[in-house]
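User: I'm new to structure prediction. If I give you an amino acid sequence, what do you actually give back? Let's try with this one:
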Amino acid sequence: MKKKKIIIFLLIIFLSDSLLFASSNLKELGIFTGRGRANLDKKDDYKLIPVGLRLGFDLKPLVEKIKIKNRPLIKVKGLLEFVLEPYLAYIYSPQDNFECGCGMLFKYGYRLGNFLPFIDAGTGLQYTTQHTNEEATQWCFQVQGGAGFYYFFKKNKAISFEYRFRHFSNASAKEPNKGIDTHNLLVGLSYFF
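Assistant: Good question. You get back a string of structure tokens that encode the predicted 3D arrangement of the chain. For your 193 residues, that looks like this:
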């Protein structure tokens, strides 16, 4: 129990420092929803509908500050963001339950006209009220990654479509710890600054 409290405390410190650092670098503000599904061993499939907020912070200024001979070591072309995604999800199978958590991802994309294809990957923390045979605890860690695209219907406004794979487990805090792998289709609406 003490280990969990330390991890949660460190996560809060990390998030607050990230927000203070990146508050002037907010690049994207959006919302998202979709559907997710995972196979469970002894119960009906795990099915959920997430609803969340997307906060994308521009990492290009930070990356391009690293210089050699007064020139950026890496010149970033395209979109490079650190994304926070706090969310709630309604679990409608195998029983009515919910999840809540926050994903922390890195996203890279390159704009081609009105389209901006992207990839993202990261981690996160979540709590679920759904009991399964795969997980002994309800607090879990996420590892996730996906690919999708934005379609800009106005200069700074875009609709996003994404497939995202997400694995969550309790990081061997308690057995069983098989983990649950969800396949998610997400759609969102974002405003870019």
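You can read the tokens as a compact description of the fold. Here is one thing that stands out. The mean pLDDT is 91.
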